[in-house]
Amino acid sequence: MGEADDFSVNADNLSLNVDTQSLLTLIAINAGKLEQQSAVNNQYVSEVIANPALPLAQGLWVTDAAVGNQKNALAFSRAVQPFQLNNKAVHGVVTVAYVNDQINDTLARLLDPQVQQVLLNGDSAQIAAALNGKPIPQATTQTTSTASAAPSVAAGSVVGTFTIRNEHGLHARPSAILVNEVKNSPLRLLWKISLAVGHR
């Protein structure tokens, strides 16, 4: 067991079936849960509410703040019914407090389509298991063999590995800018994202 095994998400940080049509309400619920646990302070709460959330995928959004993080923590809230905000679906919000790389494995799981489906459709036990990398009880989604298979590289392709070095990691907003630039590229890109914080 390594250091990364020390962080886990518990069901107390999950708010499901919130009767709202407001992204801000979902964010505020998450920020309140994190503050109750002393994972964040008032500066964090103010910043996470003031700054726009970033769409992740399938109606899931992510929020964080650069200030006021006191310990690693993650809270998730999900609306009873998906709704639209600026022509984008909103169904759930993940709010992250980040102080070190012990949370990285959990953050990486947010990119997994199966975990995203569990966030959208699962109960508290299923969501906690999915975020913690545990077997999902009575899983509501199945991963197909093509979804889990490693992508193949066509003959004549140019393959490169690029590392973005920043001792504080690549936070949500700079990550979104990078993703938007790549999406507009005519090149076919295969991504492997590592959320580990690198130190020189």
UniProtKB/TrEMBL annotation:
Mind telling me what this protein is named?
Pseudo-HPr
A Pfam family annotated for this UniProt entry = PTS-HPr
- HPr domain: residues covered: 157-200
Query: Where is coiled-coil annotated?
Result: none
What domain of life does the UniProt record list for this protein's source? Answer: Bacteria
Q: Which InterPro entries match?
A: HPr-like (IPR000032), HPr-like_sf (IPR035895), PTrfase/Anion_transptr (IPR016152), PTS_HPr_His_P_site (IPR001020)
